[in-house]
Design goal:
Length: 131
């Protein structure tokens, strides 16, 4: 009988808690970013619904702890792009004075109607115009 009580106590201790975990500092920062965008942008929802924006922001914050640094950068870029093309009020500048700069290829690409072409390159001008 004593063994059953000990087993029951041990199993009860292993049961998952229904209480949500407190957000990490990164999750709080991402949530605050989305809230700040809503407050400071003059027309954040001109090309995206409030519900879609909030759902994407919540998903990014929820997934943040398991994302790599590169995935986080892309996630923030996607969030900033949700208001629509050529929206001058949201932007991410990943190459501006960051302690851990991003790696880039020395190519400028453009997606034309007939495919992606090289429109510029550093040190390899022979690549310009190629598919």
């Amino acid at each position: 009988m004593r063994c059953i009580v000990v087993l029951a106590v041990l199993l009860a201790g292993c049961a998952g808690s229904d209480e949500p975990r407190p957000p990490t500092p990164l999750q709080r920062e991402l949530s605050e970013l989305a809230e700040t965008m809503e407050v400071s942008h003059p027309d954040l929802f001109h090309d995206v619904s409030r519900e879609t924006f909030r759902a994407e922001a919540a998903k990014l914050a929820r997934d943040a702890p398991k994302l790599s640094r590169d995935e986080l950068v892309v996630g923030v870029m996607r969030l900033a792009a949700l208001p629509g093309a050529r929206d001058g009020h949201t932007a991410v500048y990943p190459f501006d004075r960051h302690a851990h700069g991003l790696r880039v290829y020395p190519l400028r690409l453009y997606d034309f109607a007939d495919g992606i072409h090289v429109v510029g390159s550093l040190g390899r001008e022979d690549l310009t115009g190629r598919l």
